[in-house]
Amino acid sequence: MPPAVKGGSAEADVGIDVSADTAFLKSWGIDNISGWTESSAPTAQGCADAVSAIPQRRVTAKPGTIVCVTANRNHVAALQVKTIDRSDRNYPGIMVLATVWDTPSP
Fold first, then answer.
1. Where does the chain have alpha helices with state H?
2. Which end of the chain, N or C, is less packed with Cβ atoms under 10 Å?
């Protein structure tokens, strides 16, 4: 089950904020996301550690950006931004490739 992603819903794990020149993936209510800065591919433990070490409310999204998310349903995810669609000003979007894991055991 991927994290819930919705534009503007308090029940979502991740939201989007897209303007003419900036795009963000953002959390709702808690700092549960973090940018992935390693050169290697993210892992469940790596993403959980990244969010724990540097929890953020939002991360700038550009094609290629990887964002780690701790979801409220005992999952960890890596979201790789593929495209940002600004063609419809009222309904912009961010297409991501999501990899979802069960939360690693401590």
1. 44-53
2. C
